[in-house]
Amino acid sequence: MTAVARFAPSTTGPAHPGTLLAALLAWLDARKQGARLVLRLEDLDPVRCHPMWSERMRDDLAWLGLDFDAVEEQHAFAARHAVALDRLATGGVLYPCACSRGTLRPEPEPAPDGSQRYPNRCRGRELPAGGWREAREPLRVALPPGRVAPRDEGGLDLAQDPAATLGDPIVRRRDGAIAYQLAVVVDDAGAGVTRVVRGRDLAPSTATQVALQRLLGLPEPVYRHHLLLLEPRGGKLAKLHGAVGSEQLRRSYDARALVGWLAFAAGIRERAEPTTSGELLEGFAWARVRSDDAVARWTGTELRLETDRA
Question: Which of 15, 21, 42, 80 gets the highest tally of CB atoms within 10 A of its CB?
Fold first, then answer.
């Protein structure tokens, strides 16, 4: 049975170096595995997403030399998202939440994903008489208690009791948009995804996603979470995105030069020498990819890797 992989960027703005690094690693993994590779443009946010960003994302990935076997736009899957909500409602685990950030007391420590842990305060509240479609509040799913231990090929510990650690996830927002945690598992299953390669900033969400997969009777992919590309910002490291977008990068680099820099940042190559994704593929192995995050700086004209964080 052919493996199926995907790259699923949000279309809320221009691609940045971290986006392009994640795309390159997902492409190399899928092509090395002989997997079918799907580009899924995650465009469900009605405020932040725009067709312009979807088109630009496709253009940037093609410019970088990355091809895909299928391209999907997430907004097209409203029917299967509704089926999943119906199934959760039938199972008695879907409920409306009246809480706001202002009404919740901040936790002493943030949840592992950096968010505020939800204390499952509204559990037991019933859906409107007409069902979830008539709800005007965010909808959450009551996750079953207990440890969930997804498999990560890189050996990352993903084990968690998601109901206690993060709290019940929102699956439909107040504005009616389907939330990430539900959409990602439903759409991975819809595309037949068996491999998920993504940045480790999403690792804390994996146990929640697997818990939702189990509630919905969906298959569980194999996961691999890779390094992030970070920038120093005020003494703290943040994802390298706000400093530079694809338009600026393409003014400073041609595609071969940028692929070479990304390969260098990931540890695949010892020097930032021009190359192509196809040239990287022959010798690609995850053992050659650095396990620690790479810290970089945009100077205004080029990307520089920080070899000494001090």
Answer: 15
